[in-house]
Each structure stands twice: as structure tokens, then as C-alpha cells.
């Protein structure tokens, strides 16, 4: 029995419905957040690779910003799929310019299926929860970071539905994770392993030179081993942390992080004078100190003067053709 073309057409499934358009306000918000992610990643990459000669602990950075659909609520996943190409695979949503990942040819929208021959998301829960699943995403990032720190990484990607295999040799860098915190507060922190920079302080910076100091200050805490030093010295982290001996020791680490952080900006090619400019504006915007008014940080005036002196010191060393070596070493 012959089957006509008309019969085939009648039996064929209907074409897929085009995706619903993303709400413009939601699209703008998600795209702005993605741009902030890339900005933080780019500045951190430059700081961590630029300061590698002065770091006791090293890692290797890919320069890839990877996201996973599990980070988002179920109602947002169709939008992020359209905007960033997120599927059931962890997906590259940004690539730091001139990074190791960029040099390997990795592009935005590439889904990561295999890492060194193993499924990246193997034995992790699927993207099934209706709520955002931070545990799956954290596990994915830990796997990526561990693999890049160990050496060259071979990735099997999916690009426009087609397989692609690339090998990325990450760039030698100071060891620390750097992440964007969605809080609107003007704050940044370091715990010895991770640096967090809030949206509030990111939005307050006028340019990447100022952002470099904010991230550089927190990176300096991790590089100089301040968390371990304070823990070993049994410095209290409670409500009285700014009082007496506790406060003196913490303030000392803050002064060192300011000083070393200015050097980090210079090693990365940023303007070291941006640190004092940033803090002058911060002091004017919040003269009482806000989160930094508990006695754990130097006063605003002294802090600005110290930052200016550090930048002038760098200028003088450059003019004299001297190496940019800071005075402070790790607190060990």
C-alpha cells in the first residue's frame, strides 16, 4: 500500500510551539546580574593571576563563569534557558576575556557534559526541584575548581547540539574562590577560602579600579592567612571582637589587607590610587562606619591616609625602577 506525501504530512507531529517571550523587566534583571557576575570574575581573575608571585597557595583558573539551571526557581528556568542557553547541563554563561578558557575557544552557551571523561553532574541530583538548589550548584563548582587546580582539564561540550572536545590548562593564580553575593548591603568578606562581594558594594564602585581594591582587600585576608592567624590567637568573633586585644589584632589584619590589597591592584594593572578614592566616598556616604563601626577597622581618616601612602610608595618604586615588593608577609 502506497503512502502519499499528504498522508505523511497528516501523520507528522505538529511543529514545536515557539518559546514564550521573556518578560522584558525580568530579562533586563537577569542580564544585569550576569554582567555583574562577569565583572567580578574578570577583576578577580586579573588580581589572582597578577599577584601569583606573592601567594603561598596556588590554584589554576579557567576564566569560565558556569551556571546550572538548578540555581533558579522552576518558574525562572524557561527564561534563563532562552537568555543564557541553560539546559539540563551545567552551562558556560560568560568567559573572562584573555583567560585560559577564552584561549581554548570555549564560548557562552557551551554545555559541559564530561570532564576528564566523567560526567560533570554524575551522582548529583537532577534539575528537578521547583526551588533553587544551591547544593547541586556548589558541588558542580567544587568539581570544576578541584579539576582545574590539579592540571589540564579535558571538557566534552555540547555546542548547538553538536559534540566538541577541548582541553583547558588553567592559569596559575592565587588560591581563593571569589563570588558575587546578591545582598544590597555595602559589604565584602573573606573566610580564608572564599571572598564574597555584595551587589551593594559592587554598585557603589565607580569603575573596575575601585572594584579591584574591594576584591583585593578581601583576597589579601586569604593570601596573608589572617583567618588562621586569628583563630590560632583565639581572637573572639563575638560581639566584643572590637574591644581590647581582640580589636587591636583584628585592626592590624585590616591595615595589612589594605596595604597588600593596594599592591594587588598594582600587580594586576589597576590604579592603586583608586583605593583611597573609593574609601573617601565610602566614608562620606556612611560617616559613622556602618558595618565597620564595631571597632574592628581603622578610622576612616587614618585608613584613607594609609591607602594614599601605599599608592605613593608604589609610584616611588616604579619611578626608581624598583620591584613592587610589599613589606607585609603572611601572618605565620
UniProtKB/TrEMBL annotation:
Cofactor(s) needed, names only, are: Zn(2+)
How cofactor binds (record note)? Binds 1 zinc ion per subunit.
Query: Basic and acidic residues: which segments have biased composition?
Result: 303-318
Entry keyword set:
Hydrolase, Metal-binding, Metalloprotease, Protease, Zinc
Residue numbers spanned by region Disordered = 293-332
Looking at the record, the residues that make up the Peptidase M48 domain are 186-226, 251-309
Q: Which family does it belong to?
A: Belongs to the peptidase M48 family.
**Protein name (record):** M48 family metallopeptidase
Q: Which organism is it from?
A: Sphingomonas abietis
Amino acid at each position: 500500500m502506497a503512502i502519499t506525501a499528504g498522508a505523511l504530512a497528516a501523520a507528522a507531529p505538529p511543529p514545536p510551539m515557539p518559546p514564550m517571550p521573556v518578560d522584558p523587566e525580568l530579562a533586563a534583571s537577569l542580564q544585569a546580574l550576569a554582567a555583574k557576575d562577569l565583572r567580578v570574575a574578570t577583576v578577580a581573575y586579573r588580581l589572582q593571576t597578577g599577584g601569583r608571585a606573592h601567594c603561598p597557595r596556588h590554584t589554576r583558573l579557567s576564566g569560565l563563569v558556569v551556571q546550572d539551571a538548578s540555581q533558579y526557581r522552576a518558574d525562572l528556568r524557561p527564561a534563563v534557558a532562552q537568555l543564557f542557553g541553560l539546559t539540563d547541563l551545567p552551562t558556560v554563561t560568560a568567559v573572562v576575556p584573555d583567560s585560559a578558557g577564552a584561549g581554548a575557544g570555549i564560548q557562552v552557551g557551551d554545555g559541559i557534559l564530561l570532564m576528564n571523561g566523567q560526567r560533570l553532574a554524575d551522582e548529583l541530583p537532577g534539575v528537578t526541584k521547583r526551588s533553587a538548589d544551591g547544593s547541586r550548584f556548589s558541588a558542580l563548582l567544587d568539581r570544576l575548581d578541584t579539576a582545574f587546580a590539579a592540571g589540564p582539564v579535558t571538557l566534552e561540550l555540547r555546542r548547538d547540539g553538536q559534540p566538541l572536545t577541548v582541553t583547558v590548562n588553567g592559569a596559575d593564580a592565587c588560591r581563593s574562590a571569589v563570588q558575587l553575593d546578591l545582598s544590597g548591603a555595602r559589604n565584602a568578606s573573606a573566610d580564608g577560602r572564599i571572598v564574597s562581594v555584595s551587589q551593594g558594594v559592587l554598585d557603589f564602585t565607580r569603575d573596575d579600579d575601585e572594584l579591584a581594591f574591594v576584591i583585593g582587600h578581601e583576597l589579601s585576608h586569604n593570601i596573608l592567612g589572617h583567618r588562621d592567624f586569628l583563630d590560632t590567637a583565639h581572637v573572639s568573633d563575638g560581639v566584643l571582637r572590637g574591644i581590647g586585644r581582640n580589636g587591636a589584632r583584628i585592626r592590624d589584619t585590616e591595615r595589612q589587607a589594605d596595604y597588600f590589597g593596594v599592591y594587588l591592584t598594582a600587580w594586576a594593572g589597576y590604579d592603586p590610587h583608586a583605593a583611597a578614592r573609593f574609601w573617601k566616598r565610602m566614608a562620606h556616604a556612611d560617616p559613622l562606619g556602618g558595618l565597620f563601626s564595631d571597632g574592628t577597622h581603622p578610622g576612616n581618616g587614618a585608613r584613607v591616609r594609609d591607602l594614599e601612602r601605599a599608592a605613593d610608595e608604589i609610584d616611588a618604586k616604579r619611578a626608581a625602577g624598583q620591584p613592587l615588593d610589599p613589606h607585609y608577609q603572611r601572618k605565620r
